Each structure stands twice: as C-alpha cells, then as structure tokens.
Amino acid sequence: MKAIIVCTSSSHGNTRKVADAIGDVLGAKVVDPGEISPVELAEYDLVGFGSGVYFMALDKRLRAFVDAVPEGQGCEAFVFATSGMSEPSFRPYLRNLGDQLTGKGYELVGGFACRGLDTMGPLALIGGLNKGRPNAEDLTSARGFAEQLRARFD
Ligand SMILES: Cc1cc2nc3c(=O)[nH]c(=O)nc-3n(C[C@H](O)[C@H](O)[C@H](O)COP(=O)(O)O)c2cc1C
C-alpha cells in the first residue's frame, strides 16, 4: 500500500505532529502542498489531507491544493485537523473537505481531529489554550486511527 499525507501546519507544528504519527504507522511521507503536484496523488492508494484551523477554516494553501486536484483520479482518502476548539456544527470544515474529496471521486475512509495549543490573540497572554497538545494521548489516538486505515489494506 502506497500512502502519502499532504499537511499544512503553520502555527505551532501541532498538525504536523499528528501527521507524523499517522505517517509513521502508514509508512507514508508527509509533504507540504508546495512539495507535490495534485496530479501526482494519482500514484497513491491512500492520501491524507490535514491542516490546523484558522478563523474557522482549514489552511487556504491546503484548500487551494484540494481545489486543484483533478476529478476522477481518486483513491482512498482521509482528513484530519488540529484546532483550539472542536468543530462547530454550523461550520463543519473537516466534513466539508471530506465532501469535496468525495465529489472529486475519492472514497473517504476516515477523519481525525484533536485539540492543539492555541495562542491566537489574547490567548497568548495566558500561555495559550490546550497547553501541551497534541499530547501523548492525542498522538496515541492518531496512531490508532492510522492502524485502522492500514488494516483496510491487510
Ligand atoms: C490565526 C489563528 C486563528 C485560529 N483560529 C481558530 C479557529 O477559528 N478555531 C479554532 O478552533 N482554533 C483556531 N486557532 C487555533 C489553531 O487551530 C490551533 O492552534 C492548531 O492546532 C494550529 O495548528 P498548527 O500548529 O498545525 O498550525 C487559530 C490559531 C491561529 C494562530
């Protein structure tokens, strides 16, 4: 099974920690959108897309990358994010990303989210929200998520 993870993680590297944990289990390289062409994803059996959340949206570079993925070259895909707070029901950014990928012909096989250190604005004055996260427990959960994905190919 050939897997790759496309990840943006611009604030504290929180999402990258999750991506690395998942990538370690899947034997997948983790790349920034600038390091791969959307067309190249067709070479993989499983593709992960992950980002931090900024102003109630996934990173615009990841969104632009997914916009540029051609339709109909789909394989299996999963999505993940870290954020200061859980996804609000009125703004389901991770679900929307999954829907977009499904619309492009990917089979969405999973989603993962956890909290990450958030020092946005005044939160920095108190040392941030979710200090130390993603923590060991979050990364163990991420690895468990990846093991389930890997088992699909056993
Ligand atoms: C400019 C900025 C805006 C943010 N906006 C949100 C937000 O709307 N909702 C939320 O839950 N977290 C928000 N956060 C917190 C980040 O989603 C969280 O810190 C995340 O783990 C960052 O991931 P990264 O370190 O991979 O970039 C924001 C953080 C920054 C720096």
UniProtKB/TrEMBL annotation:
Molecular functions (GO terms): FMN binding; menaquinone-dependent protoporphyrinogen oxidase activity
Listed GO biological process terms: heme biosynthetic process
InterPro entries linked to this entry: Flavodoxin/NO_synth, Flavodoxin_dom, Flavoprotein-like_sf, Protoporphyrinogen_IX_DH
Domain Flavodoxin-like: 4-150
Annotated Pfam families: Flavodoxin_5
Gene3D superfamilies given in the database record: 3.40.50.360
Name this polypeptide is given: Flavodoxin
Taxonomic lineage: Bacteria, Bacillati, Actinomycetota, Actinomycetes, Mycobacteriales
